[in-house]
């Protein structure tokens, strides 16, 4: 897994979004600003196309939209904490506060890509199962707090893989 998969620059602590499409659009725009994509509109199209297949709502106030895209040069994970407590992903029963947008280049080795995605998904699943982590993310006042919690879990998953 890349050390630069997620950085402080790809963490948004107060995303002002009115809908899922608005959130994804703004996150893709942010990835353009931090030079993770040269074509945010096409990246947005790839992510929304994938999202139309099946919702990426993960429960516990979390969604993990993801796509393989020709519009990123390296794998990237963007975390956003949505500003509104009333934001929903696909309807009233899918309250979301945290969004993990994951995208990887279409040119990458597909089996390696799927394995890397699996580590990200399992790490996020582990983290969102812990009330103290959700509380930490809810009240974090700087990006480093989020980054450290994610990197700690990614490292633990990677070490587990190596020792098993």
UniProtKB/TrEMBL annotation:
<protein>
    <submittedName>
        <fullName>PTS sugar transporter subunit IIA</fullName>
    </submittedName>
</protein>
<dbReference type="GO" id="GO:0030295">
    <property type="term" value="F:protein kinase activator activity"/>
</dbReference>
<keyword id="KW-0813">Transport</keyword>
<dbReference type="Pfam" id="PF00359">
    <property type="entry name" value="PTS_EIIA_2"/>
</dbReference>
<feature type="domain" description="PTS EIIA type-2">
    <location>
        <begin position="4"/>
        <end position="153"/>
    </location>
</feature>
<keyword id="KW-0762">Sugar transport</keyword>
<dbReference type="InterPro" id="IPR016152">
    <property type="entry name" value="PTrfase/Anion_transptr"/>
</dbReference>
<dbReference type="InterPro" id="IPR051541">
    <property type="entry name" value="PTS_SugarTrans_NitroReg"/>
</dbReference>
<dbReference type="InterPro" id="IPR002178">
    <property type="entry name" value="PTS_EIIA_type-2_dom"/>
</dbReference>
